[in-house]
Amino acid sequence: MTAITADEVQDILGAFRDPYLDQDFAAVARIRDVDVTPGDAGASVRCQVVIGYPAEGVRAEWERRLAAQLEEHPGIATAEVRLAWEIVAQQPQRELAHLAEVRNIIAVASGKGGVGKSTTAVNLALALAAEGAKVGLLDADIYGPSQGVMLGIESGRRPEIRDGKLFVPIKAHGIQAISMSMLVDEDTPMVWRGPMVSSALQQLLTQTAWHDLDYLIVDMPPGTGDIQLTLSQRIPVSGAVIVTTPQDIALIDAIKGIEMFRKVEVPVLGIIENMSVHVCSACGHVEHLFGEGGGARVAERYETVLLGALPLSLAIREQTDAGRPTVVSEPDGPTAGLYRDVARYLAARLAARGGGAAKPGPRIAFVDD
Question: Does the CA dihedral 368-209-178-361 come out positive or negative?
Answer without folding.
Answer: negative
